[in-house]
Amino acid sequence: THRWNSRYCDLGSMRVYLAWSGARQRLRGRPCRRVFCSEVDVYEGDKRAGDPIQQAHQRTKAFTRYLHYHESSPTEEPSPIAELERAATARYRWHAPCPKCGHWQEVRFFARSGKGGVVGYLDAANEIVSPETARQQARYVCESGCELGNDQKSQFMESGRWVPFGCSVGTDGNLQGKEPASRRSVGYHLWTAFSDSINWSDLAASYAEAHAAGKLRDWWGNCLGLAYRPKQRVPLWYEVGTRLAATHPRGT
Question: If pLDDT is split at 50, 70 and 90, which confidence band does 239 have?
């Protein structure tokens, strides 16, 4: 008996409204108890419509108990979803015990000094190898030095737990560190390693492919779930104009 029309979907116990960024009437017109914002990093705002994320938040001001849910693949800094996650009162990262030694650690892609991440995509000179070579050599090295192959990825990931940012898990499995004082806003970091259909070889090969194609910006957001930070900041248009405003010799 659900009723659909151009304004809302009537589910009997609730009404569901669909809105999109840039549409002032749709974002401003209806009070809602729960607001779900998908792919917030590609929302479009302008001087007339304003910030679409803040407009969505205003929909719940009539209620004392409400929910704001945001998710997105991050873009280049400044990233709206990254800023929302940093502003959360409780932030969590996925930690898992090594299947071989039992050491608990945060699951990351980039290793530190050859440990605690995926390896095999660099050669002896720290140059990125070809995607085919990366796929053959890829493996995960835990912080204690144990090497985990593709066949141990599922066991490694599925045995983990969410741990507050800045905390760790001891050898006894208990949390070490201070838990967040408030859970009014909670942020979780998800990335491609959570997918059962992708192994260490796939991750290493995708990184080598993105580096060769000059698409690291997209790879960081879609694969790592992190906002990309270029090594050098791209100058603004007026900065370039100021540099070129002086007189220069021909051919400069």
Answer: confident
Q: Which residues are CB-contacts of 132 (< 8 A; sequence separation ≥ 6)?
A: 205
Cα–Cα nearest to 121, from 113, 108, 132, 106: 132
DSSP single-letter state for residue 195: -
Residue 232 pLDDT exceeds 80: no
Band (pLDDT 50/70/90 cuts) for residue 73 is very high
d(CA 56, CA 31): 10
Sign of CA dihedral 48, 53, 56, 58: negative
- Helix, strand, coil % in the chain, rounded to nearest 5: 30, 20, 50
pTM of the model: 0.83
Instruction: Give just the sign of the alpha carbon dihedral 61, 63, 65, 71.
Output: negative
Q: How many CA atoms lie within 13 A of 5 on its CB side?
A: 5
Is there a contact between 21 and 52 (Cβ–Cβ < 8 Å)? yes
Query: Is the Cβ–Cβ distance between 107 and 191 less than 8 Å?
Result: no
- For the ranges 7-21, 71-85, 176-190, 198-212, which has the lowest average pLDDT? 7-21
DSSP collapsed to 3 states, 67-99: EEEEECCCCECCCHHHHHHHCCCEEEEEEEECC
* CA distances to 15, 33, 35, 190 from 67, in Å: 15, 7, 6, 20
Instruction: State both tokens at 23.
Output: 């549409």
